[in-house]
């Protein structure tokens, strides 16, 4: 039986069984609403407590997107075997080579244990992006690892783990969100600079410039009330050498892309990355807004860790 949409958005709960203990399996906690309204109460003064730091015990490569389905976490990731190389000048409209790699969707427990490694992609299209679950399917985009290229959007059945192609698009697709209310699929291009809307057959219905210039969205998910919650990052130069990673969360309208609410998230990983650098997923459990993140790659200082933050928004 498919997992209901509500199970993703708002009704998953778990208990921490002491320091270093295992996470209990999440169970429904009542008829709760999706988290858009709760997130709208978050501001720069909201206290986020690090409730859990769990090492993920398998090679994750470069994680991209999260989706919560019952007691499982689905995580998209790219394994790069040959990095793209920039051309001195554009060649056939491209600014770099395709490189080579393998796209993955890892199915794991909330304790970071691997259940299944599902390979996705085709040829030069090996880079998965941000993913979303609509109550029936996970929507997984896989694109070439370069702008102005091409991509495939897949549907992944969370029960059978069967993957089937939904449609293709002639541009890099960096993330997808499926709206269960309208049946439409929304996506972003390279750097999330263009917002796209398709029907479920892949007919492009609209595209518009992203009005949010604060963040490049890395992972988005349906948040209720015709909105999506996107996590992201922007690299900013410092007064001295180097750069600073600005991370944040943005609640935007799916119809028009307008920013409804946006806050920075000044928390950092073991490798020094902002927490919203890569996969992020939120859920609401009673009055607790919970955020899952995996900002670091498997070859960094502590490997990939699953970070769980909790807050108590009021309003």
Radius of gyration: 18 Å
State the end-to-end distance. 36 Å
The main sheet comes to: 5 strands, antiparallel
* CATH class categorisation: Mainly Beta
In CATH, the topology is named Tachylectin-2, Chain A
Overall pLDDT, averaged? 90
Give the number of domains.
1
CATH architecture: 5 Propeller
What percent of residues adopt helix (DSSP H or I)?
Answer: under 10%
SSE order in H/E notation?
Answer: HEEHEEEEEEEEEEEEEEEEEEEEEEE
Low-confidence stretches: 1-33
* Proportion of residues in β-strands: over 45%
What is the number of helical segments per DSSP (H or I, 4+ residues)? 2
Described by the principal axes of the CA atoms, the overall outline is: globular
The helix-and-strand class reads mainly beta
Quantity of strands, as a count? 25
Which terms would index this structure?
disordered N terminus; 315 residues; mainly beta; Tachylectin-2, Chain A
Question: Could you describe the 3D structure shown?
Answer:
- The protein has about 325 residues and is mainly β.
- It has helices spanning about 5-10, 35-40, and strands at about 10-15, 25-30, 50-55, 60-70, 70-80, 85-90, 95, 100-110, 115-120, 125-130, 130-135, 140-145, 150-155, 165-170, 175-180, 185-190, 195-200, 205-210, 215-225, 225-235, 245-255, 260-265, 280-285, 290-295, 305-310.
- The protein has one domain (about 5-15, about 25-310): Tachylectin-2, Chain A, CATH 2.115.10.
- It contains 2 helices and 25 strands.
- The protein is globular, with a radius of gyration of 18 Å.
- The two termini are about 35 Å apart.
